[in-house]
């Protein structure tokens, strides 16, 4: 089997230690022994499939894809970074829920120049964001959600030229969101920064930036020209601002549980592609905008032509239902309870 290049043993129900003689398959390009987690207790994933020492992986010099989700790597410590850094062909790394803990070490020199996907969510790093990621320009997707990261989110993330997906949800990260959103984010499509400790207080405090200007490199009047999903729920943004209407390609916007105050701006009519809008559990007041027109940029005479779900529950909205709500032709779910709206 020395010529084997593809081996998928994922979700087979194996228990015990993964054998080190897999390291003899030096031609492997794809290796996946991901497990279904056995149980979740005390906010930790536990599994009976484990690795004590991963030095044998250094022999897999042709490996491009490594999947080990929910395999217990708690005995490996921070060694995993140095070992995997010796795999120069690696393009995808999946280590979700592996009970990794401690700081994410920084390799002395970075050999992961082909790495496109790194998914290491649901671990217990108790670490700052690994700055060396900023030197891996090939990165397309980063997921370190729910992993006890702390400290500041590096502004350099917004300058990674190929980054499309960034998920840092549910950590203890801090810092101001304004300078982050003013970076170029040339290709970002999915951005999740919810459930952190950004800016001040216990969560993200202060208003979102009043203006997000476009850049010539984006060929767009706004930054974040390719953004499809923006998740900022469970923070304290405080204010809903008009610049959000510049994100014309946005399909999903999550801003619930943010203590948003004030009126819902009529600029939401610019969301030509928006399918899901969640502004629930805030302090929005006043009436819904009386008039939201279809726009030429949407190529539609009706407002929000693609909207399927609108969540406005648990706010302080008053007044009558505006006529445009009845013109949302693709609407599947409209949630308005716990307001003071009138028919």
Account of the protein in words:
This protein is mainly β and about 350 residues long. The protein contains two helices and 23 strands. It has helices at about 80-85, 175-180; strands at about 5-10, 15, 30, 40, 45, 50, 65, 90-95, 115-120, 140-145, 150, 165, 170-175, 190, 230, 250-255, 260, 275-280, 285, 310, 315-320, 335, 340. The strands form five sheets. The protein has a 13-stranded parallel beta sheet with strand order 1-3-7-8-9-10-12-14-15-16-18-20-22, with no helix packed on it. Helix 1 links the parallel strand 7 and strand 8 (about 90-95). It is elongated and about 70 Å long.
Question: Quick summary of this structure?
Answer:
Helix content is 3%, strand content 20%.
Task: Name some characteristics of this structure.
single chain, about 350 residues, mainly beta, 13-stranded parallel sheet, about 20% strand
């Amino acid at each position: 089997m020395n010529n084997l290049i593809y081996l998928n043993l994922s979700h087979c129900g194996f228990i015990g230690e993964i054998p080190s003689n897999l390291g003899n398959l030096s031609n492997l390009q794809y290796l996946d022994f991901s497990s279904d987690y056995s149980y979740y207790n005390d906010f930790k994933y536990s599994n009976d499939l484990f690795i004590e020492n991963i030095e044998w992986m250094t022999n897999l010099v042709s490996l491009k894809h490594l999947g080990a989700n929910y395999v217990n790597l708690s005995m490996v410590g921070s060694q995993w970074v140095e070992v995997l850094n010796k795999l120069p062909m690696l393009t995808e790394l999946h280590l979700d829920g592996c009970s990794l803990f401690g700081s994410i070490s920084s390799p002395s020199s970075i050999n992961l120049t082909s790495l496109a996907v790194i998914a290491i969510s649901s671990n217990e790093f108790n670490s700052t964001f690994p700055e060396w990621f900023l030197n891996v320009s090939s990165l397309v997707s980063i997921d370190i959600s729910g992993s006890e990261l702390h400290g500041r989110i590096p502004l350099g993330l917004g300058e990674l030229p190929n980054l499309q997906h960034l998920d840092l949800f549910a950590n203890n990260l801090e810092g101001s969101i304004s300078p982050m959103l003013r970076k170029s984010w040339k290709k970002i499509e999915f951005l999740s920064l919810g459930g952190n400790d950004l800016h001040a207080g216990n969560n993200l405090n202060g208003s979102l930036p009043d203006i997000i200007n476009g850049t010539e490199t984006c060929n767009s009047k706004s930054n974040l020209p390719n953004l499809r999903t923006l998740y900022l729920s469970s923070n304290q943004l405080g204010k809903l601002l008009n610049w959000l209407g510049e994100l014309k390609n946005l399909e999903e916007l999550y801003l619930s549980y943010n203590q948003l105050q004030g009126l819902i701006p009529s600029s939401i009519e610019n969301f030509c592609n928006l399918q899901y809008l969640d502004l629930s559990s805030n302090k929005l007041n006043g009436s819904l905008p009386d008039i939201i027109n279809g726009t030429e940029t949407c190529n539609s005479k009706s407002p929000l032509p693609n909207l399927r779900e609108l969540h406005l529950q648990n706010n302080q909205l008053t007044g009558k239902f505006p006529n445009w709500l009845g013109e949302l032709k693709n609407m599947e779910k409209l949630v308005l309870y716990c307001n003071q709206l009138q028919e």
